[in-house]
């Protein structure tokens, strides 16, 4: 059985938490991971108990909504609140971090940032990450991995493939057989 890769798994988590966002301008989700364990996650939203952009509209000052705390900051603050070390941890985020979050991420000791989508990637943030030795990797999120139908088809195909290969048929026959099965499955 083919299992989902770790980077896609944590990126899926960040996309899932982004659906809790209360700012209509952009829905962002972030997950902090240490030793393949999720230690915190966050989405962009108002402070606890505050007004939500979804109800009161965004509070825009100089082109930015200042009502919300960014997803990356919320994830880091969750660690601060509940006492989990972020040193040498990894951060998975749906969008490239802004300059303010970039500085907090570096200062919190995060060693790797995985992001799914480019978003106004600021040259200063890129420069700061580089100088701090924080590795930044783009991991586009494949939404298909959450599609149970396509997952089960993939698993069926893997099983059939293993069975056909075990028969030690001539290569040409195996290929033809697998192609024919695959076309019927889709
Ligand atoms: Zn807003
Ligand atoms: Zn930010």
Task: Provide a descriptive summary of the structure in words.
The protein is of the alpha/beta class and 186 residues long. The protein contains 7 helices and 7 strands, in the order H-E-E-H-E-E-H-E-H-E-H-E-H-H. The chain has helices spanning 6-18, 53-56, 71-82, 99-107, 123-132, 148-166, 171-185, and strands at 29-34, 37-43, 60-61, 64-65, 90-95, 112-117, 135-138. The strands form 2 sheets. A 5-stranded mixed sheet has the order 2-1-5-6-7, sandwiched between helices. A two-stranded antiparallel sheet has the order 3-4. Helix 4 (99-107) packs parallel to helix 5 and helix 6 (148-166) runs antiparallel to helix 7. The chain is elongated and about 65 Å long. The mean pLDDT is 92. Residues 23, 25, 53, 58, 65, 67-68 line the site of one zinc ion (ZN). The site of one zinc ion has 6 residues, from helix 4.
């Amino acid at each position: 059985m083919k299992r989902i890769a770790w980077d896609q798994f944590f990126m899926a988590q960040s996309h899932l938490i982004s659906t809790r966002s209360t700012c209509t301008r952009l829905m962002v989700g972030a997950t902090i991971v240490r030793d393949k364990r999720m230690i915190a996650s966050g989405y962009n939203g108002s402070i606890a108990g505050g007004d939500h952009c979804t109800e009161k509209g965004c509070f825009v000052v100089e082109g930015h909504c200042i009502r919300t705390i960014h997803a990356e900051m919320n994830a880091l603050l969750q660690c601060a609140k509940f006492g989990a070390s972020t040193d040498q941890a990894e951060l998975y985020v749906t969008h490239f971090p802004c300059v303010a979050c970039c500085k907090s991420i570096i200062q919190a000791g995060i060693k790797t940032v995985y992001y799914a989508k480019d978003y106004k990637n600021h040259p200063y943030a890129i420069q700061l990450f580089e100088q701090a030795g924080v590795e930044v990797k783009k991991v586009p999120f494949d939404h298909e991995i959450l599609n149970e139908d396509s997952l089960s088809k993939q698993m069926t195909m893997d099983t059939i493939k293993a069975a056909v290969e075990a028969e030690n048929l001539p290569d040409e026959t195996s290929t033809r057989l697998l192609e024919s099965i695959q076309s019927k499955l889709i």
